[in-house]
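Q: Got a minute? One more chain.
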Amino acid sequence: MPNEGNKLTVPIAIVVAGALIAGAVFLSRGGVPEGTLANGQNPTKKDITIKPVTSADHILGNPNASIVIVEYSDLECPFCKTFQKTLHQIMDEYGESGKVAWVYRHFPLAQLHTKAAKEAEATECAAELGGNAAFWKYTDRLFEVTPSNNNLELSQLPVIAAEVGLDVAAFNTCLSSGRYTAKVEQSYQDSLAAGGTGTPYSIIISGKQQIPIEGAQSYSGVKSVIDSLLGSSGNQAVPSILP
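A: Always. Here it is, folded:
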């Protein structure tokens, strides 16, 4: 029976040990093929230094939700494209009641996807021109149309802007200015500091608990963790999210 001091650390250790899923894209600064580990060995728990969620983040749902999913994502990652749909399912179930919020942060893997950083800048331009709602519309539409794996033509970025109702001339001016380049790079660095080694990489935050999720987990897997956290009295172990 865990003592009081272990109530938080034990559940996190259990989930971290079982949270990896096949199909995640892993990376290192030197560049690593999809589906491999940066060091060629089994991953271990990393220190998590996650940047606090603020009003400057792109938040879907109730900012004061008891559970927040912070996702670090690459717009050209095929697994991120799948996980985008999964998290929308989660929000459909838990978002309207205000129980769960979803925070999207950029983690473009330049070694694999040279276009991902510019695409991330495009989403920031969408947010500048149309607010948080435009950010999510633009991001969702980009994921819908991209073939992934660096195969979206950048000429489609203003086309997407038009499709979601943005001023295309203003969008092009914003994108060509490069004024969000530094922001996207900082988000990448924040992703590494939070323990990210590939995409998608997410952290489920509930109170003092921070539960890392690596890879495109299934809807049922993410749901099981959320249900456990919502129903936990504080001394129940959060289950592994492996299928």
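A: The radius of gyration is 18 Å.
Q: Perfect, thanks.
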